[in-house]
Amino acid sequence: MRILLLAFFSLLCIACTSTKKPVLTSVTILDIKPRYIEAEAFKRVAEYLTGKENLGNRVIVRTDRSERAGYYFVLILDEQVRDLPAGTYIEGEIYSPQSLDAQEHTFKLPSELPKNNEIFIGLTGEDWPNQSAIPAAWRFTIKNSNGEVLATEKSYLWSF
Taking residues 131-150, what's their average pLDDT? Predict the structure, then answer.
C-alpha cells in the first residue's frame, strides 16, 4: 500500500511541475527610475577577459547598440520579465530638451530573458548626446506581439 501511495504522490508532484504558466495578458509597471548612466557602469570582470559585454541577469535595450552611455529608464515590473509573452516590445515616447516634438522609439525585447523584474531602456548615441540633459516628460507602453497593451506608465508632466 505504501508503494502505491508513494507512486501516486510522485505522479501528482510531476504533474504539478509540468503545467505551463498562463500567458500574461497584463503587467503592472511599479516604478520607472530615470537616470544618466556612464558606459563604464555596464562593464563587468567577464568583459575584460572576453571582450564581450556581459549583461548578467539584466535586460538592456538601447537605441544605439554600439553606445552604452546614455539616459536610461529602468522599468520595474510586478512580474518577471521572462514571463512576458514572446515578441513583447516597448514603445517609448520622450520629450527631451532638444526638440519640441516627442522622440518615439520601439524597443524589442530579446528572445531569451533572464529571471528579473527590471528592464533598462537606454537612449544612447545621437538620441541623447547631452549628458546633463533631463527629459521633460515620458510615457512607456508594453505591448505583446499582436500590439495589445500589457501595461503603460507615464510621468506626471505627460498629462499636461
Answer: 93
